[in-house]
Batch of 3 targets.
Target 1
Amino acid sequence: MKLFKPLSILAAAATLGLIAVQQHSSAQTKQYLIGFSQLAFDDPWRVAFNNQMNKAAGKYSDFKLVTVNAQRDSAKQVADVENLVQQKIDLLIISPNEAAPLTTIVKKVYDSGIPVIVLDRNVLGEAYTMFIGADNKFIGTKAGAYVAKWCTTMKYRPCNVLEVTGLSGSTPAQERGAGFREGIKKNRNIKILSSVTSEWQKVKALPAAAAAFQAKTNFHVVYAHNDDSAEGAYIAAQNANLDLKKMLFLGIDGLPDKNGAIVSILQGRLGATFVYPNGAAEAIDWAHKILTKGEKPPKKITLGTDEITTENAKAACEKYDCEK
Ligand code: FRU
């Protein structure tokens, strides 16, 4: 009996201590599950995007990132998001394949209290925590202005354009198309003779452009909504025996890898590109501030771009550390 009391006090103290230690360590190691719904994994821009997302999330030991691939299928992406919610994610990051089909699920997640960060392509309305992306209208306008200048220098009257668009239901395609039409207003000799779609994919750009070149051969400019599609159209123009030296091919993305547009400009295929950042690092940093500090982010963060042409491609290669 005599020993019992001090021992039980000791035991109680030890238990308390243990609880205290447990509480302390669980506060230190609270883990957050971040769900990333990516629209596709099958092109170089998305691959770079995913790599940067993994790298950014790797900086935070309290973050676990789960990335899912919608394979360019909006219905699958809706199911992917539902699945992530079932896995009890603390925050959703999404790059939506198309705006309209993803709007309802994004709103549902946001309304349920899970923060949602939308990247690169947008949904309709503003039922999300924040949007991070470049200004696609601005980029399209810059591309149009570049074409306007080029057509003047080349003295092409008219100056005929083939447009190769991204997926029509995705916001960058809509905005890059609208911006381009603004930009070319500076030169009344420019005519968009045909507009075809590649849905962002090089494999689809090639036959779409081939059909356009078969119908009409008098194109001076190919404005593609992304570099992959510009490269696909370039191959189609080569196959159609067009005089490539008299033509301008331009796209958007400006990747620095060896198959990317900066190297393509140096090798003489593309004439211009515009850097399109993905926002992965910014999204992860904001996710961390939202979850660990309760910070309220701005509704929208607009990322910058960079115009890369034959004039500055060499310097851009140094700046972006491109692979040669
Ligand atoms: C990659 C991509 C890019 C383009 C972006 C638009 O999947 O097609 O080439 O800039 O998506 O969202």
Target 2
Amino acid sequence: MISIRHLSKTFNNPDGSVITVLKDVNCDIDKGEVISIIGPSGTGKSTLLRAINMLEPPTSGEIWVDGENIMEKGYPLDKMRRKMGMVFQSFNLFSHLTVLENVTFAPVRLRGLSEDEAKEVAMELLKKVGMSQKAGVYPDSLSGGQKQRVAIARALAMDPEVILFDEPTSALDPTMVGEVLSVIRQLAKDGLTMLIVTHEMRFAHDVSTRIFFMNEGVIYEDGTPAQIFEHPVRSATKAFVNRIQKLVFEIENDDFDYLQIHTGLGNFCIKYNIADKIEPAYVLIKEMLFNYMRPYRPLTLRFTHAELSGETAIDLMVEGLKESPLPKDESLENVRSKVKQIVEEPTVRGFRVKLII
Ligand code: ADP
Ligand code: MG
């Protein structure tokens, strides 16, 4: 359905310097595919989406859609825009129009639907994204997650062949990420063709037919989710997909700020969708800091989460320590019963206790 050949995009900066953001992008996208584009920031993911729908006209290359090169001079852009919907990080709803009007606006003007037809279609789509009850309100009264669901309904209202999503959940409060992802999951099930730039690794893994890993302006590696996440071939891909999110606290002495740890941990778990770990983590950290490891100061407390494997761990590191601070007897049972595994290991600079929860 879409073929991209040797696509490049160069920006001329005001100071005269030139930056090549897309170098030589090539790919084919079939109807019904759900492709997640992942990669470090600044590698051209947004630019690629904006180039594909000509919001940011490419410098050179070809973009074939349904057998026509849309970069050819004279190709009608409105025809291309009807085929491609776009959902942005920042929603971009019209604030002076109601939810319903946001969704009917383009179909009436660009698809030539009557007001009544457009309303009927819009109400159906709002129902699909769980927003039909808010049809009459203005976007300002909606939460971020609700705005983004309306933006998705608005894109669907043009009956596009493909929807391009640019980090649809990045601007959202962590508690609202789920509702937007589940709408996108449903669209994937319906067989809609989608290109999704996302940082949500688990989601990308579960929902996609293919993954593009972008790095330094090219599609550096592509493959099925299993290939990219479980068996990446190139080293930069490996490093990216196996990256671990960390929250670190230095405990200098006994009057450390426990409230800060408590709050930080709660926010971290919500952000990475592991709210179920909050309670056990609180209990274990308290137990370690105030009981077993009380004599060991300073120590470094790290809370880690590997997004892809889902492994979450509490890591306590004491410099200069030669052996485990934990008791060998059954008094540790109250900790053991709450963890998957306890790892006690010497490190280059001291000793680490790791609780995998
Ligand atoms: P990503 O979405 O992967 O984070 P982007 O596509 O937004 O990356 O940006 C890639 C690079 O292109 C960045 O270095 C960015 O500064 C640069 N860039 C993006 N848009 C413009 C622009 N309009 N003018 C100049 N440089 C730009
Ligand atoms: Mg971006």
Target 3
Amino acid sequence: MEEKLKKIKEKVEIQISQVEEINSLEKLKSEILGRKGELTQILKNLKSYDESQRPKIGKAVNDLKRLIENKIEEKKQVLKNQELNKRLESEEKVDFSLPVKEELGSLHPITIVQREIEEIFRTMGFTVEDGNEVETEYNNFEAVNVPKYHPARDMQDTYWLENGQLLKTQTSAAQNRIMKKYGAPLKAIFPGRCFRNEDLDASHENTFFQLEGMMIDKDISVANLIYFMKTTLSEIFKKDLRVRLRPGFFPFVEPGFELDVSCMYCEGKGCKVCKQAGWIELCPCGLIHPKVLKMGGIDSEKYSGFAFGLGLSRLAMMKYGITDLRLLNSGDLRVLKQIGIK
Ligand code: DAH
């Protein structure tokens, strides 16, 4: 028997060394070690051997099986490496000067709208600031006058990290940091990605974009806010828009407003987009709450200011006629084609 196993071992070693492809190796493996393989047959027929010999034979066969398995595994690695090297070599031969066949990407609709708006604000002397996506609870809530047990927190449930930080729910989270960085007077916008723990539907996503703005100086009043918003929004929509304010509550502004613009599609006459109202609700805003100024290190006796929050995702949807917010995060290139960006 010893002799027989030795022969099998030698034969198999030669077979393994001759294999050149992983597929053939797999085939060989099942031939050698499978049900019909010689070794399995020996084990099956153990009964035909002398009883005293059986354990010894069984062990020898199993040892050999294991040895063969290891050899096959080793060979597999060698073949894999060879294949990889071959691929790398052939890819090096790619001619990079050939024209690109694959489709090129384009800027995301939100990025396009964001850049347009940034440009408009830059021409008015605003700086464009970066906000963090991971924020402290203080910046996202407390510093904008939403203390721990304030009901406004309910509407902005978000994702919390184990270290107590959170994914910011609003671009307002950057207000405090920016006030501390520049002091007053101050003119800044800060676009950014926001997150909320939402039930998803066509107008709610767990990830969306806002663009926030702040202007702080001496004697800033609601009149400044109205004039400023009217001019800026007319510039963004490239149409002379009228604006109106309705009272709105946000803990970080006092007074706070919902700002509507006259419908840019029907010019106020009433259409499907404005639901026959002639107005479109566009932008919450207000005069920055003195407490928020103070927390930002700004003397609220000397300075006042306004803040506003534009929904960037919403603006992109309006600009490109997208009716489902979820498409913006879908990564589906067909969306770009459909809205005519590509
Ligand atoms: N942060 C608010 C939100 O996400 C939007 C907002 C409202 C921003 C009023 C402002 C503001 O700056 O003045 O719901």
